[in-house]
Structure formats: structure tokens, C-alpha cells
């Protein structure tokens, strides 16, 4: 573990070419580095799949105590490409920055970094205009608005073709289990969804088939 010390935790006194530094740090942290890593690892897996992993946390001390966890781009068969960005996890509250547009920002940086290595090392899903995270969010928003708030989009699978299509599974949580009750196709070039009233009915019917005592609550 590294410690990145920020002001005002540091007192500097310079005399000529010499600098005296005084550091005093004491704190009881509610969030361990392992917990901060786990939070970001889950976020990256949910939003980006296997290609972004959480790196080793660093402690950043200043107005707040933060665990800084890098998001590292990694491709199977190539290894780590490099750090794309980082997430600061509050060491007392476990909160971290996930403001609107943050996921898209990380996705853009990941794509830019992927373009620095040989093209044959980059998986197909990194070469389409619409990233997996965007396809998943679109499907989840559509499900909440049109089907029910107990359903979310799962991890997208890219189907190569003309055009390439993200197949986003529709996931229902029931008694601690995640059950796939449908698939929504998202055009990986334009972001358009193959959504229809017939698809809504199919999802409802499959959800009922798993023994739900009531259909998913309407959003």
C-alpha cells in the first residue's frame, strides 16, 4: 500500500536549498483497502465486464481520507494495457464518485488506451461505437419504464455481424437468485433497441413462469 499525502496533512519549511517536512497522521478508518477494492471491482465488472479490473488501492490524505483505486485495462492474451482512470473511495463512508457521465468518460479513456496497442490484441467489443455499458444502461432504463422495476439489464454479449449487436439479457432477481427472462438486442453502431410490445409480453410471460406470485411491479 502506498500513501499519497496531500495538504493540509503536510507542513513544509524551506531554508535555502533545504526543506523540512513534518507529517503527523492519525485516524480510525471505517473502510479497509480490501473493501474499497471490492467496491470498485464490482462496479467495473458490472459496467465493463472482464476488461477493466481494479488495481491496488493507495491512501490519499487531505481534507478527507480516500482510497484511490485505479481502473486497469486488461485483455486476455495481452495482459495489462495500463491504468485508464481511478475512483476515490471515501475511507469513512465508502462513497465514491459515480456522477452522470462518469461511466462514459471511463469507457472513452479505455477505448483511447486500447488504440495504443496492436489492433489484433483488442477484442471486438472495444471496436464498436456503442460500449457495452451504454447498451446495458439503455436496456435497464427501458425495462424500468416499460416492464417493471424488478428487472435490469445483465452483462451484454456482442454478436458480430452487419451490424454488430449487443445482446443484453433481462435479469430478474427472485429469492436471492438472478434469473434470465429475456434478451434485448441493441445495435452496437447506433444504440437503437429492438424493443416492442411483443417483447414486453414475452418477458412478462417468462417472469411469471418462474413462479412469481405476482408480475414485476410496474415502474
Task: Give an overview of the whole structure.
It is a single chain. The protein has 219 residues and is α+β, with helices and mostly antiparallel strands. The chain is built from 4 helices and 11 strands, in the order βββαββββααββββα. The protein is elongated. The N and C termini lie far apart (44 Å).
Number of strands: 11
Number of helices: 4
Low-confidence runs (pLDDT<50, min 5 residues)?
213-219
Instruction: Provide mean pLDDT, rounded.
Output: 85
Count of separate structural domains: 2
Share of residues in helices: 25-40%
H and E order: EEEHEEEEHHEEEEH
Radius of gyration: 22 Å
Beta strand %: 25-35%
Quick one: overall form?
elongated
Biggest sheet details: 5 strands, mixed
The N- and C-terminal alpha carbons lie at a distance of 44 Å
Oligomer: single chain
Which class of secondary structure composition applies to the elements? alpha+beta
Topology summary:
Layout: E1 2-5, E2 10-15, E3 18-23, H1 33-48, E4 52-54, E5 58-61, E6 65-75, E7 79-90, H2 102-114, H3 132-146, E8 151-153, E9 157-159, E10 165-174, E11 177-187, H4 197-209
Parallel strand pairs: 1-5
Antiparallel strand pairs: 2-3, 4-6, 5-6, 6-7, 8-10, 9-10, 10-11
Question: What tags apply to this protein structure?
Answer:
elongated, disordered C terminus, alpha+beta, 4 helices, 26% helix, 11 strands, 219 residues
Short description:
The protein has 219 residues and is of the alpha+beta class.
Amino acid at each position: 500500500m502506498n500513501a499519497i499525502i496531500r495538504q493540509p496533512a503536510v507542513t513544509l519549511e524551506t531554508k535555502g536549498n533545504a526543506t523540512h517536512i513534518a507529517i503527523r497522521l492519525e485516524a480510525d478508518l471505517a473502510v479497509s483497502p480490501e473493501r474499497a477494492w471490492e467496491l470498485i471491482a464490482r462496479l467495473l465488472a458490472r459496467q465493463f465486464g472482464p476488461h477493466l479490473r481494479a488495481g491496488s488501492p493507495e491512501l490519499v490524505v487531505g481534507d478527507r481520507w480516500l482510497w484511490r483505486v485505479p481502473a486497469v485495462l486488461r485483455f486476455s492474451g495481452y495482459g495489462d494495457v495500463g491504468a485508464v482512470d481511478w475512483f476515490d473511495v471515501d475511507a469513512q463512508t465508502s462513497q465514491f464518485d459515480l456522477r452522470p457521465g462518469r461511466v462514459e468518460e471511463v469507457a472513452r479513456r479505455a477505448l483511447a488506451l486500447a488504440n495504443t496497442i496492436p489492433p489484433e490484441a483488442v477484442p471486438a467489443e472495444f471496436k464498436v461505437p456503442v460500449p457495452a455499458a451504454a447498451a446495458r444502461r439503455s436496456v435497464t432504463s427501458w425495462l424500468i419504464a416499460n416492464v417493471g422495476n424488478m428487472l435490469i439489464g445483465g452483462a451484454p454479449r456482442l454478436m458480430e455481424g452487419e451490424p454488430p449487436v449487443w445482446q443484453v439479457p433481462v435479469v430478474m432477481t427472485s429469492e436471492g437468485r438472478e434469473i434470465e427472462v429475456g434478451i434485448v438486442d441493441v445495435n452496437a453502431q447506433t444504440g437503437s433497441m429492438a424493443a416492442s410490445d411483443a417483447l414486453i409480453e414475452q418477458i412478462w410471460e417468462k417472469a411469471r413462469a418462474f413462479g412469481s406470485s405476482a408480475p414485476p411491479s410496474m415502474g
